């Protein structure tokens, strides 16, 4: 076959990568010397259900599975129909090429794509494996000079993972269909991630809140109100005052390990407040301790997803899509990595930049290194960083990239640079104040040298603002000094249920447990949302009751598949295969047939025989006042409540920890009443009913069994008790024709509608959401036209976003307090003042007292001029002896963005 070919093919050397974008970037560096083409992803895979099979496999008993288990787990690879044209085109190019370069990503998936290309194309010319971690001219040239062969151990590890996923997905899922309901799926990593969500929700359901009180005091040195500071009650009569961490979440009582503490209730707090109001205050002691804070390591895939979620509000999928674009266009290094290491080239680029942009004071004597937990050196990429031997500036990138890409690049740039800067240094100051038998404590923080914080602060979008927020300076006081008591306030607190996982915190948890790999975390979360095992409430991931039933079945009958350690060990086993230390087929045999413990084959047989839908699908909510046991059940056609006789449909997306016994009894009572007749439609004579269904109350025109029955849900904010025949007919009249549009050349009519995402107006192909508070029953043609003339925006931007939480009325101002999701993260607002939530504080955990305090602090900062400068004025009152010269030094240091003392010396 080779002899029939010409001795010297006429074409160019062929380079094959995965994506067209990557091909385009590489082609720019290679000029016209090489032909660069894309495989457009995987070119072979296991067959999908009902997919076409080669003649060899047709009629095979394992054809549905796509894996010949009896023939040592031989995979039945097929070329998908949508890839056949591309394969034909690549074959033509290979036939003319003098050599083939396979330049797919250097991980298991990329190695597998190269191997499959080799199998499918069957080239008769020299083949080289081209690997690089960034798409730059120097990286490509270096790779061309040092090619390697395909790493078959990596290929075997990918193949073993793919077969494992197929065995679990195709063999366990039918058990879920038959024992819970159709359309469900199990997954090797997906199921463990789902268990985390379910267990957290179960903790929230079992949670008992506890109320506790304390006192907040405001003190000042005698006659110096401007130097006032706040302190919290920490001790009464020699006993520590109980705080949230002292309570048992399962009982709402003090925990057994809380020690000898004083639990203040409302009455005790009021009595203490009264007793202390006439007392004088004295400083017990002042403690000052130095501290230093290290910068965070450069990004791995996990930490990038977490930080992009916190700072940019990106979902994991969005983060990886943007990072993929940045990588393929040569802006960053490879984005799927466990490594925190930087190459010598990257260290040189970062250190040169730091010296140039921040000064020598911010450049450590030696490069900083970080420990990495990568187990497989063959798969260990560099950390995610800006590409190249010199990093493109943020300003330059903003001019060339879209907003998402520029924002993510900026995050990566700052994190990389900060990782090579010195520690931040400062002092923590604690002042304890005695008022009678009570002790209050105030904490302060002074930043002496910002170090890496000058460039980047984890969880903060603005390093300068974060520096200002981080510093909290207390006035100079000494032990024994008398203080004025400006204010004492008794404050109520409630313990909070554990926060639900967000996408970022779930990725962090999976990473810390060693479950999944960089290439899988984003897709895992996507599957949970797409399969309706979970939904989002704000940024939180909420599991459905269907997820509860699935996890109950898996933990009872397929416990290894839901075991955290077992799943983590599977990842380790795959690593061993990729290193050539373990044999893939032997591992698959143990997994399927067992090895001292039942294998998956046995678990499936037993699970199908023993799993009882009645036990799996019912969840007791509690007992009604009349003694009835109320249960929520997952049915084949949806979720419903039952007391043994009456059923009431419930929305599958109900929040489990919010479906209490009182709400369940109310829904069952509505179901027992049945349809409520509102009257007859004058136009048709047909009856109109008010009913309650799975998705809430709705109105219906016609009898239940009519072929052309019409139903419309009540609008947001409508109460069933307020619905009469007139309002029902208006709802049933939707969509509402507002008249022809003068802006449309065809005279299309403008319609007011209600859809999945709320009310909106349409004209032809154009649509716009109605602002909150505007009803589709009342919107005018003029209002609709004004909306339609506005530029189209993303769905999430068409109307004000719903608050993450509504806290209620401010105890002093009466203004409504809400927690909203802003560009830089969640914040609390009363409509006039906005205050960011502290780093690490979940919206669900913020109490009313916390919110009031945050807003008060923010208002005080705004009144003082905002930010750090106002606090610095207060700090200067520390000593009347401070010279104007020292003040000038501070000002000079701030301008130079360098440490105060060193900067002043340089200037002198």
Task: Report what the structure shows.
The longest helix has 28 residues, at 152-179. A hairpin with a 2-residue loop joins β15 (534-537) and β16. The strands form eight sheets. The protein has a six-stranded antiparallel barrel. A four-stranded parallel β-sheet has the order 2-1-5-6. A four-stranded antiparallel β-sheet has the order 17-18-19-20. It folds into eight domains: 14-44 and 79-150, Rossmann fold (3-Layer(aba) Sandwich), CATH 3.40.50; 160-207 and 501-612, Orthogonal Bundle (Topoisomerase I, domain 2); 211-294 and 426-494, Distorted Sandwich (Topoisomerase I, domain 3); 301-422, Topoisomerase I, domain 4 (Orthogonal Bundle), CATH 1.10.290.10; 617-668, no CATH class; 676-797, no CATH class; 808-816 and 829-863, no CATH class; 870-907, no CATH class. The chain has 28 helices and 32 strands. Residues 1-6, 795-799 and 866-908 have low confidence and may be disordered. It is globular. α5 runs parallel beside α19 (584-593), α5 packs parallel to α20 and α6 crosses α16 (545-557). The termini are far apart. The protein is of the alpha+beta class.
């Amino acid at each position: 076959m080779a002899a029939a070919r010409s001795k010297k093919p006429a074409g160019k050397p062929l380079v094959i990568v995965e994506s067209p974008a990557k091909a385009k970037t590489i082609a720019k560096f290679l000029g016209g010397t090489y032909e660069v083409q894309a495989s457009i992803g995987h070119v072979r895979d296991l067959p999908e259900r009902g997919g076409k099979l080669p003649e060899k496999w047709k009629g095979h008993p394992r054809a549905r599975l796509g894996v010949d288990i009896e023939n040592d787990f031989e995979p039945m690879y097929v070329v998908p129909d949508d890839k056949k044209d591309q394969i034909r085109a690549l074959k033509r190019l290979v036939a003319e090429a003098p050599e083939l370069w396979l330049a797919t990503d250097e991980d298991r998936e990329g190695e597998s794509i190269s191997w499959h290309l080799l199998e499918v194309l069957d080239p008769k010319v020299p083949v080289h494996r081209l690997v690089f971690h960034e798409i730059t001219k120097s990286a490509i040239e270096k790779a061309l000079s040092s090619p390697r062969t395909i790493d078959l151990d990596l290929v075997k590890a990918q193949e073993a993972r793919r077969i494992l996923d197929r065995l679990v997905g195709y063999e366990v899922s039918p058990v879920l269909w038959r024992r819970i309901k159709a359309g469900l799926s199990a997954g090797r990593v997906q199921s463990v991630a789902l268990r985390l969500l379910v267990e957290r929700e179960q903790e929230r359901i079992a949670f008992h809140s506890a109320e506790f009180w304390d006192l907040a005091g405001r003190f000042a040195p005698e006659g110096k109100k401007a130097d006032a500071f706040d302190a919290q009650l920490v001790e009464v009569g020699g006993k520590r005052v109980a705080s949230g961490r002292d309570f048992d979440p399962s009982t709402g009582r003090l925990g057994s390990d809380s020690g000898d503490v004083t639990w203040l209730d409302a009455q005790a707090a009021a009595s203490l407040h009264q007793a202390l109001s006439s007392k004088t205050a004295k400083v017990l002691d002042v403690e000052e301790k130095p501290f230093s804070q290290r910068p965070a390591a450069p990004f791995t895939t996990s930490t990038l997803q977490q930080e992009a979620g916190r700072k940019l509000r990106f979902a994991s999928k969005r983060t990886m899509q943007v990072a993929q674009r940045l990588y393929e266009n040569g802006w960053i290094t490879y984005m799927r990595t466990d490594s925190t290491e930087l190459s010598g080239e990257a260290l040189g680029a970062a250190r040169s930049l730091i010296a140039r942009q921040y000064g020598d004071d911010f450049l450590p004597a030696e490069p900083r290194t970080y420990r990495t937990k990568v187990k497989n050196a063959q798969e260990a990429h560099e950390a995610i960083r800006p590409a190249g031997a010199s990093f493109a500036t943020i300003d330059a990138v903003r001019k060339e990239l879209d907003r998402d890409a520029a924002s993510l690049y900026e995050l990566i740039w700052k994190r990389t640079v900060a990782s090579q800067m010195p520690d931040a240094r400062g002092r923590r100051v604690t002042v304890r104040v005695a008022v009678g038998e009570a002790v209050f404590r105030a904490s302060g923080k002074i930043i002496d040298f910002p170090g890496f914080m000058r460039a980047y602060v984890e969880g903060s979008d603005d390093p300068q603002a974060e520096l200002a927020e981080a510093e909290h300076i207390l006035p100079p006081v000494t032990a024994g000094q008398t203080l004025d008591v400006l204010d004492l306030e008794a404050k109520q607190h409630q313990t909070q249920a554990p926060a639900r996982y967000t996408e970022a915190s779930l990725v962090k948890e999976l990473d810390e447990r060693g479950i999944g790999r960089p290439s899988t975390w984003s897709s895992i979360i996507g599957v949970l949302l797409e399969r309706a095992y979970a939904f989002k409430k704000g940024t939180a991931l909420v599991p459905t009751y269907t997820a509860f039933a699935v996890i109950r079945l898996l933990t009872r009958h397929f416990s290894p598949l839901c075991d955290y350690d077992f799943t983590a060990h599977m990842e380790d086993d795959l690593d061993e295969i990729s290193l050539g230390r373990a044999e893939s087929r032997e591992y698959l045999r143990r997994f399927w047939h067992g090895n001292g413990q039942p294998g998956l084959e046995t678990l499936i047989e037993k699970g199908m025989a023993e799993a009882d839908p009645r036990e799996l699908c019912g969840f007791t909510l509690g007992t009604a006042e009349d003694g009835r046991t109320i249960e929520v059940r997952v049915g084949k056609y949806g979720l419903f409540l039952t007391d043994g006789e009456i059923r009431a449909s419930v929305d599958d997306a109900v929040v489990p920890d919010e479906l209490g016994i009182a709400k369940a009894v109310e829904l069952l009572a509505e179901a027992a009443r049945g349809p409520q007749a509102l009257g007859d439609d004058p136009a048709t004579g047909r009856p109109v009913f008010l009913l309650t269904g799975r998705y809430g109350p709705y109105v219906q025109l016609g009898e239940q069994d009519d072929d052309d029955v019409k139903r419309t849900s009540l609008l947001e904010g409508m109460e069933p008790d307020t619905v009469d025949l007139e309002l029902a007919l208006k709802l049933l009249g939707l969509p509402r024709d507002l008249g022809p549009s003068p802006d449309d050349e065809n005279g299309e009519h403008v319609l007011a509608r209600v859809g999945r995402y709320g009310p909106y107006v349409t004209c032809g192909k154009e649509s716009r959401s109605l602002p909150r508070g505007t009803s589709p029953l009342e919107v005018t043609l003029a209002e609709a036209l004004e909306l339609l003339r506005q530029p189209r925006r993303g769905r999430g931007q068409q109307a004000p976003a719903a608050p993450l939480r509504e806290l209620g009325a401010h105890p002093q101002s009466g203004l409504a307090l809400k927690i909203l999701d802003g560009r830089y993260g969640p914040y609390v607002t009363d409509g006039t003042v906005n205050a960011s939530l502290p780093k690490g504080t979940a919206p669900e955990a913020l109490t009313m007292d916390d919110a009031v305090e945050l807003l008060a602090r923010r208002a005080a900062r705004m009144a003082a001029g905002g930010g750090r400068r106002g606090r610095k004025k207060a700090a200067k009152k520390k000593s009347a002896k401070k010279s104007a010269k020292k003040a000038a030094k501070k000002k000079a240091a701030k301008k130079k963005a360098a440490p105060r003392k060193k900067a002043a010396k340089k200037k002198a």
